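JOB MANIFEST
job_type = single_chain_structure
chain_count = 1
residues = 233
[input]
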Amino acid sequence: MKLRNNLAPAGAQDNSQFSERPYELTFSQAMMYGLLKGWFATLRSTVLNADDLQAMLGSGRRFVCACWHSDVLYLGFRVPKPAVFIISPSKDGDIIAGLLGRCGYEVERGSRQKGGLAAIERMAHLMKTKGLHAGIVADGSRGPARRAQNGPVVLARDTGAWLLPVAMAARPLWRAGNWDRTKVPLPFARVVIAYEEPFAVPESARGEGLVFWKKRLEDALNRAEHRAEDALK
């Protein structure tokens, strides 16, 4: 399954990910939803390999879309639907879970520190029974940054879905001072999204055998980020 190096033209951000799905939000979630929707509307996005990506998504195959935690504020809302996410059981996670639910995504709660394995198992069940894609951060909810954890690899292995690495770059861009240096495209920024070749994880990948596939995911995410950055030059 090959991705050619083609480029979709830049234009006004597609706001279709912000569906008006009936979903009860708290006041703070509703405020954040409105801000996110307005922010996305100002951004101009370009997707590298757009034609090939659409062909893959139309093939009937399921994908585990994985990105670095630093990219999730933007890329989390660009995962193809229908899909399920794993979100940490934190106060910040409560807000994100509500926003994703309003946008039409399924959400399971868990992290490496609390209930992560059970959440991955529930995600796998939903993917198999409902034919969902999945969205997951490769380096987990607390890092270390840019070091792939077991979750994405295990989820792909246990469901037969292919791992699809994705990264983004933007200009102008603000970087937070937190552990992952979260990327926040400024209003009216140009955003480039880059996907790398998807790959399957064999059922035999267990224990120390996971190390190879985590490193492959790390390398693919770093290549995707470099390609996105280069497209902005």
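[summary]
Residues 44-231 form one domain.
The mean pLDDT is 89.
exit_status = 0
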